[in-house]
Design goal:
Two copies of one chain form a homodimer.
Chain A (H helix, E strand, L loop, with lengths): L1 E5 L6 H11 L6 E6 L3 E4 L6 E4 L1 E2 L8 E4 L5 H4 L3 H11 L4 E5 L2 H7 L7 E2 L15 E2 L4 E4 L2 E4 L4 H14 L1 H10 L18 H18 L6
Parallel strand pairs in A: 1-2, 1-6, 2-5, 6-7, 7-11, 8-9
Antiparallel strand pairs in A: 3-4, 10-11
Helix pairs in contact in A: 1-5, 5-6
């Protein structure tokens, strides 16, 4: 089971590492972290650097392709090297997946036309110019294209993929192995559940930043 | 807010990256990934390599110390360089924390004597020789020592820490930012919830491996 995880500067680490931790336990999993070239790729905080194991041109196919999100996805959306890689590998996959704003990269690559899809709640509307129908679900399956909502949702998505690929027992075994029995101290993980003033606080903090760096959508 | 995250060969990536993603959003967070020396440290799957930003001897203090778990913790438990670092930094912290079998490293450093503590469910009993009282809770706070259960529990622990440090609104804001609204496809994340045959399957797979490499406990 060949799994290719795309990395680019400014990715959000948990978008990639959540599903990695689950998918790495599939039978015969071979995980590749793929970027422009082999070597260090910095996550969005600047504090974490992960090594890409392969360059885009070294990877010819994958059973599962995963594109994480993060502030850096704004550049990835406009970057021919990333988009060409995504399109080229998608032609070989059993599953093409994204977490968070990674779905905007799938959209920019032309893979979401006419499909329902999700993304981080703050950028959901940006799926529309790519011909996708934004959908407020945590994991959206449309044939082989599977998009997940913000950051931590990749764990849920990956468990679903394992369920499809290796069955219920195996997926439950992985869930038990990573002791994924979530007990957050609040029920504030979606804009429909968080207190209104908290949603407002997050919007006020991030929307100006996002507007400032928003690229013109590729249609 | 200085945050030191210990890395060693064979750590489980999500143990470290889950809490990192949450804690990095604390006001003035300065995250350091610390290991024997600066540079690449391989996670347990062999597929993921993270760069340590600092060597043990470069870090003098931290507000939060976090020790992740993973198969490599068996060696870390017996390694003077790791244990000295943990003891030295613990003397300066506001919070000393662990995820998964990272609590065995805290135990080996002598920090859990007389305290309730948790760990991955499969190694919970190994806390006892260190004078700790194994506790089947997801997050266990004992003064400034906070231990979390297996792998994914570090996300819940970090949100609790943020709540203590920066208040309810801030913690909810981070939860909303990482869209942590868990929807696993099964309710199988603890041995009390997973089907019995799945618990048996995981035990049968991992216990022989763990027994083979179990070090003599340091008391």
């Amino acid at each position: 089971m060949d799994i290719a995880i795309v990395l680019y500067e400014g990715f959000t680490a948990l978008d990639a590492i959540g599903p990695y931790e689950v998918l790495a336990q599939l039978p015969d999993a071979a995980i590749r972290f793929v970027s422009y070239e082999k070597g260090p790729v910095r996550a969005d905080t600047g504090a974490l650097t992960v090594l890409a194991t392969h360059a885009f041109d070294e990877v010819k196919r994958a059973d599962i392709l995963l594109v994480p999100g993060g502030p850096g996805s704004d550049n990835a959306e406009q970057d021919a090297a990333v988009l060409d890689f995504v399109r080229r590998i998608d032609a070989t996959t059993r599953w093409t997946t994204s977490v968070c704003s990674g779905s905007l990269v799938l959209g920019a690559a032309g893979l979401l036309r006419g499909l329902r899809a999700t993304s981080h709640w703050m950028v959901l509307d940006r799926l529309r110019p790519y011909g996708a129908e934004p959908t407020e679900e945590r994991v959206v399956e449309q044939g082989k294209i599977v998009t997940a909502a913000g950051v931590s949702s990749g764990i849920d998505m990956a468990l679903r993929l394992v369920q499809r690929i290796a069955g219920d027992d195996f997926a439950q075994g992985i869930q038990l192995g990573i002791e994924y029995d979530p007990q957050p101290p609040f029920d504030a993980g979606s804009p429909r559940k968080a207190p209104e003033h908290v949603v407002g606080m997050i919007r006020a903090t991030f929307e100006p930043l996002m507007a400032a760096r928003r690229p013109a959508p590729r249609t």
